[in-house]
Amino acid sequence: DAKTTQPNSMESNEEEPVHLPCNHSTISGTDYIHWYRQLPSQGPEYVIHGLTSNVNNRMASLAIAEDRKSSTLILHRATLRDAAVYYCILRDVSSSNTGKLIFGQGTTLQVKP
Amino acid sequence: GAVVSQHPSRVICKSGTSVKIECRSLDFQATTMFWYRQFPKKSLMLMATSNEGSKATYEQGVEKDKFLINHASLTLSTLTVTSAHPEDSSFYICSARDSASGRAKNEQFFGPGTRLTVL
């Protein structure tokens, strides 16, 4: 499984934008880039995913590098409820794979009031 | 969004007993479900892939006789921890993929987790 690298932790101030980076230099053509987040003592929550183009949804934006070897999750205005562990995951959707998610260590985001 | 439930949310048992954890997709059908475990301050570790009507596929190092998985319907998968020991104490989380086209490839929906404590 292709691996991702994320900073262990990041800090942000409330109501400011947050840019969470992820490196995935060994990404293959059939890998989608997924982001999930996990609040304490809860199951992970889907945030966003993309393949090649930048993506926006109500929760966040995903900026994908042209060579796809890195991506950045953007929270436009961080709130205290955004404090969580953010996981960047590559998901292989080729027919030979179930598309299972392999979690790395993620980035722990702290949001300061 | 789609909802996945787990039952129980928390269980305490004695060493040597077996514990069953249920994972249900409440408003969608799931051909495939996944089981993870998570130790404190650690990431999720995939244990197995549960396929409706067939045997589960276990990840390397996970004992299939210890962690029995049954996926008898499109909305229910169960994980049974047999002869539980204190080292099996962990946070167990399931996820499910919507079998309907359009969402199947893109999202997994996670349950809230089950905290198992073995005394």
**Low-confidence stretches of chain B at least 5 residues in length (pLDDT < 50)?**
none
What oligomeric state do the depicted chains represent?
A: heterodimer
Largest interface: A-B, 21 and 26 residues
**Number of beta-strand segments of chain B:** 11
**How many alpha or pi helices of chain A?**
0
Order of helices and strands of chain B: EEEEEEEEEEE
Tell me about the largest β-sheet of chain A.
5 strands, mixed
- SSE succession of chain A: EEEEEEEEE
Proportion of residues in β-strands of chain B? over 45%
Instruction: Report low-confidence residues of chain A grouped into runs of 5 or more.
Output: none
Tell me roughly what share of residues is in helical segments of chain A.
under 10%
Helix content of chain B: under 10%
Average pLDDT of chain A works out at: 92
Cα Rg of chain A? 14 Å
Report the span from N to C terminus of chain A.
38 Å
Please tell me how large the radius of gyration of chain B is.
14 Å
Strand content of chain A: over 45%
Number of strands of chain A: 9
How would you describe what is shown here?
The complex is a heterodimer of chains A (113) and B (119). Chain A has 113 residues and is mainly beta. Chain A has strands at residues 9-13, 18-23, 31-38, 45-50, 55-56, 61-64, 70-75, 84-92, 107-112. Chain A contains no helices and nine strands. Chain A is globular and about 40 Å long. In chain B, the strands form two sheets. In chain B, strands 2, 4, 5, 6, 9, 10 and 11 form a seven-stranded mixed β-sheet that branches. Chain B is an all-beta fold and 119 residues long. Chain B contains no helices and eleven strands. Chain A binds chain B through residues 32, 36, 38, 41-46, 49, 87, 93, 98-106, and chain B through 1, 4, 6, 32, 34, 36, 43-46, 49, 57, 91, 93, 95, 97, 105-113, 115.
